[in-house]
Amino acid sequence: MDKPEAAWMRKRYNIVLIVVLGLFLRLLAIQNLSLFGDEFSSLLEARHLGMNWNGILYYSVLHFWMKIVHADWWYRLFSVLLGVSAIPFLYFAGKFYRGTRLGVAMALLGALSPFLIVHSQTVRHYIVAFLLASIALAALLAILDGNQKPIWKFWFIASLILLPFSFILGVLLSLLFLIVLYIERSKESRQKTIRIIIVSVLFLVFNLVLLINPVRIWGWHWIQHLTDAVRYIDFQNSRGFGISQLVKLPFYFFLFVLGYHVYPLEWAIVLPAAIVTAIALCVGLLRMKNKCQLILVGAFLLMLQFLVFDAVVPPHSLTLGPEYLIIFWPMLILLLADGAIGYWKNGAFMGLMLIFFTGVLYQHYSNWSYGEENRIDWPRVLQRYQSVDTDSTLLLYDGRSAQALRHYSSSSIQQMGTWQVTAGAVDSLSNFYRKIFWLSNDWQTDRIRRFNDLFRRLYETYDLVDGRVDYPLFQYSFEKRPFAGTGVPVDSTSGRVMIPNFLYGLDLSDLPLPISASLESVKVPVLGNFRLPDFRGKNSIEIALARPVGAAELFIITSLVMPSNSVTAETTIGRIRLMDSEGKRFDLDLTYKKNIFSWDEPIQNSIMAEHLAFSWHKRIFFTGQHTYPGAWRDFTAKAYFSGFTLPKDLFHSIRIDYKFPVGHLYVWGIVFR
Questions:
Q1: Per-residue pLDDT band at 669 (split at 50, 70, 90)
Q2: Are the beta carbons of 229 and 316 closer than 8 angstroms?
């Protein structure tokens, strides 16, 4: 028996108040959000209907919606209204399942979910799938409750509507409808059990068929043509099953409860949330023991849509994100709400709501986020290019920045995509442009490698003078050297060498730049780094200086990244070679544990403490197939400076060699003093 319903939960008008609450949370600060990532693609597909048939109805409605008001907040309002519309259906789902009390609880969790708030503010069709899945769940629960009204039609209609909104998700919902209808038509319990076994076996066989390579190839090409992605990537092999599929599933539950902005290792928040939600989930499953069809539907949703589909897509394709599980989330809300109110007092359910609300607060006040939800303020970024000398300035941008530039930029500055710059074109840029701005927003390894090759050619005639990195957004400013072929300048005041910087990957994604490095009593600005071995596998770099430099000391700021326990004693891992105008060499050894230290090693003595240049919090990163060594580690990363005494001479160039067989050496700065 359920516990007596609280008076405030029995009042029907509370559902109206909950809808108003959900609307308020989804409209909050919506005008401050600039578009990002796939949202630009949504607008493009809405303007040019027929590019992507997966979601054609959504894009068709958005096409006319965009004509009413031309503003980002208006485009988002369409998704907000769809997201809010799901709240009443969550209420009906709970009401059909176990009464008004559960209905109100489900509606409250739906209104407060930070995950649903984010996707209700996003110009994508995922929230439509959530709305229609909520309708289908309400219809399913009415059927299981023995409702004699033709309520199953709502599920059927929801599935049909979802097909043009999201074809793949619509097919899944339709299959589940047929499964439930087949099971429920059983006249006796024995027959129902047999049908459940038949469906389970067929489903298992279907999953095994998906593992056959020709089937995977055909399916992948079909999805590519359906979503207009055929021009991007081709199938090579599947990712396969692995531990990542099992780990990502609880992590995505975490995102649903706390949203994208709570760091998973904030134990004061995460641990209570994990305990409460785990108990609620288990109790909810136990209370569902007499609804085996519902458990079967939920299991099928998870297995087919995530565990199987995520395993068969190619490794180089983006991993399935939590939004692809969105038609399962109404059932998760059911389990959480039923578990919380069915076993505990109402105060425990209040605790669950408090956890959800904490995720909402973090959404507005946290400076960390997971993945693409770290939205770039594109109007502010592009504002810096509004008042520049347009005659001799070029803005180079990558493909992921192109749509933002088209949508927001009103500058008359000349612009060029990186894909338009060939090897010969780089050499000719210096004939027309004194200054080049670089703008890229990509983390894909192959494209970063191509960008760095372009950087390498730019450094032959340009110097890096300014920069800002808020990963994956790189903004750099280059200025043409007075004379072609001359070396890099050395700041006459600080002695800082304007070293070439290159784009880096996910391993340094937690470090915003610029940052000031402490070099004894001097602050040295750090705009980026170069890495050895570099992106081409080369273990050395030679830097020619624009003028001969004489100094008493040389300082180099580095971070050594290598596998744990690969070296334990003092070991020479590299060398600095200075050369004068006559070709005379002066070599300096880079020795691990003496003047070079690992980025993840705790500060163990006064020497390391004295040589610390700067540090940052390196967080764990759930990357799917975009992984790197140490992605699952959380520690304080460090950069150290090493000082060397120099002879009285004038040096014309610096060469740095990395000689260790494993690991990388990041060089953040070189300073003469």
A1: very high
A2: no
